[in-house]
Amino acid sequence: MNNNIRVNELCYSTLSSKNPNSFDTYVSLGGYSTWKNIVTTSYDRKEIIETILKSGLRGRGGAGFPTGRKWSFINQDSEDIKYLVCNADESEPGTCKDRDILRYNPHALIEGMLIASYAIGANTAYCYLRGEFMDDVYSSFKKALADAYENKLIGNNILKTNINIELHDLIGAGAYIVGEETAMLESIEGKKGFPRFKPPFPAVKGLFGSPTIINNVETLASVPKIMENGPEWFKSAGTKDSPGFKCFSVSGHVNKPGNYEIPLGTPFKKLLELAGGMKDGKKIKAVIPGGSSVPVVPGKVMLETNMDYESITQAGSLLGSGAVIIMDEDTNMVEVIHRIARFYYSESCGQCTPCREGTGWMFKIIDKILNGKANLEDIKTLESIPSMISGSTICALGDAAAMPVESFIKHYKNEFLRYINHENQNKEKIFSSNNNNEFVLQKK
Amino acid sequence: MQDNSTYKISSEVSSKINKWLLKFPDGKKKPAIIYALHLIQKENKYIKSIHVDALANFLNLKNIDVYEIAAFYSMFELEKIGKHTISVCTNVSCMLNGSDEILSYLESKLKIKVGRSSDKYFLKDERECLAACCGAPMMQVDHKYYENLTKEKIDKIITEIENE
């Protein structure tokens, strides 16, 4: 274990306790003191938003939008009913960080939701958990919610202050698209998860037509400690543009896959070290640094990259949800992108033609390639599809489906060509035009 | 799907639905559909058209309002399935850790193809990532998580179910 990295100080701060998810554990570690202070001193709402803005906290669901700014979009002076929604529909492939917050530190999320509700003037908050969490994850959260109600921290007349905030648990039923914030609003309203056109943005017209703020689990669970310790404490970790801590779900070919909450800007090398290094002493080939929706990055590039928003963008990808999927030298990249393409094909909601049709085309062509039935034309067609989807759809699922395909072909084209069983005169030309590929073509 | 039988929402389920409705603004009924379908599916294993009709009637909604929810969300089963639902995650992180072998092993052990069901087991064709990537390969049995799977572990899990 590397001792010079600060690990699990924020959302996973209860993890080292015996009963991490209990009310008593949370309170013994100073939990709910911020919330109690806010309600009993009639804390200035604008000051809360200002503190979160100053901390530089960015949305941890994938888009990385500054949280304080999002909150500031709510018109404080309007008399409208306002809602807060917590997005606990964790389903970006490779991501399992929120599940551990819900299981092991649910009170941090609840306190964060209360503070956020207060800050934006919402009297009702919903936490929408994905349907597949209905067993232990949901139970853990529900238990915590009941304990917080019992201790009069939620509900009517909170701690006899005349402040009323209801916090409800909701459960989904299996649909990746519901993780998109406006699709989630549709789902809460009891409809199919079809993303909405924006504008109007949810902060203006959201749930049941009212101003609504939607935040990810990790984002909200980060709020209490930032309020308690101040924005400077948060900024003492991370970089100037990516301050604070971030949970990374490290999976794939590593010895110790797991969730690691570390300062943003930590070198990828250190994170890999935390995760026990490469399995079986193999070499690293590629990394998907932010969930399956982001471009793949060659391993040697990642080894020189730091884990913050800006560095990963510079490396040609996105930090996304913080799901770091690591692949070793033996990984068949066509198989990996086949699996990813199958996922987006299954999960496209079908509302927009470019995504509905494009995800199908991409999957079918990759399937054809994998089965040795494709020719060079098919690869050219495949290469042309992502740009026809990107930017042409209501929500980001289209882009999320397009970016990985584009990047896999860019970095690992030789592996696609290996599957082409047709003799083609231009073969040599295409091979030689692709120099950034470590894969060696075996001549038959 | 022709079915001449009738179905009445049980008093236990209806009181749960009514309680759930309190989470939403007055008069809003649709927000309870997903939760109600979970309850009905739990009771009946899968959703039949008579269930959809009964729920629509109960919530005073059009049948299509309920049907489109049952059809859109992948956890709702519209065909007859066995007692236990097994979902093996085959998304990227699990695939990199051998989930395809795990799935084939289950297929041969349970003698059913993925997506099919016997009286006892339904081997769901799971396309989503089930958010336990650091415990890959993993599966859910009736939504309970089983992680770091091996053939031996699967043998043990199935034996436990058999001995229930």
Largest interface: A-B, 57 and 44 residues
Write down the domain tally of chain A. Answer: 3
The helicity of chain A comes to 40-55%
Second rung of CATH, namely the architecture of the largest domain in chain A:
3-Layer(aba) Sandwich
Sheet of most strands of chain A: 5 strands, mixed
Which fold name fills CATH's third level, the topology of the largest domain in chain A? Rossmann fold
Strand count of chain B? 4
The CATH superfamily of the largest domain in chain A is identified as NADH-ubiquinone oxidoreductase 51kDa subunit
Percent of residues of chain B in helical segments? 40-55%
SSE-based structural type of chain B: alpha+beta
Poorly predicted tracts of residues of chain A: 423-444
Largest sheet of chain B: 4 strands, mixed
Explain what you see.
The complex is a heterodimer of chains A (444) and B (164). By secondary structure, chain A is of the alpha/beta class. Chain A folds into 3 domains: 5-231, NADH-ubiquinone oxidoreductase 51kDa subunit (Rossmann fold, 3-Layer(aba) Sandwich); 245-328, Roll (Ubiquitin-like (UB roll)), CATH 3.10.20; 333-439, de novo design (two linked rop proteins) (Up-down Bundle), CATH 1.20.1440.230. Chain A is built from 18 helices and 11 strands. A 5-stranded mixed β-sheet of chain A has the order 6-5-11-8-9. Chain A has a 4-stranded parallel β-sheet with strand order 3-2-1-4, sandwiched between helices. Chain A has a two-stranded antiparallel ribbon with strand order 7-10. The longest helix of chain A is centred in the last third of the chain and has 22 residues, at 397-418. The model of chain A is unreliable at 423-444 (pLDDT under 50). With 164 residues, chain B is an alpha+beta fold. Chain B has 2 domains: 11-72, Arc Repressor Mutant, subunit A, CATH 1.10.10; 84-162, Glutaredoxin (3-Layer(aba) Sandwich), CATH 3.40.30. In chain B, 45% of the residues lie in helices and 9% in strands. Chain B contains 7 helices and 4 strands. Chain B has helices at 11-21, 33-44, 49-59, 63-72, 92-96, 99-110, 151-162; strands at residues 84-88, 121-124, 139-141, 144-146. A 4-stranded mixed β-sheet of chain B has the order 2-1-3-4, covered by helices on one side. In chain B, a hairpin with a 2-residue loop joins strand 3 (139-141) and strand 4 (144-146). In chain B, helix 1 (11-21) runs antiparallel to helix 2 (33-44) and helix 3 packs across helix 4. Chain B is elongated and about 50 Å long. Chains A and B meet through strand 3, strand 5, strand 11 and helix 14 of A and helix 2, helix 4 and helix 5 of B.
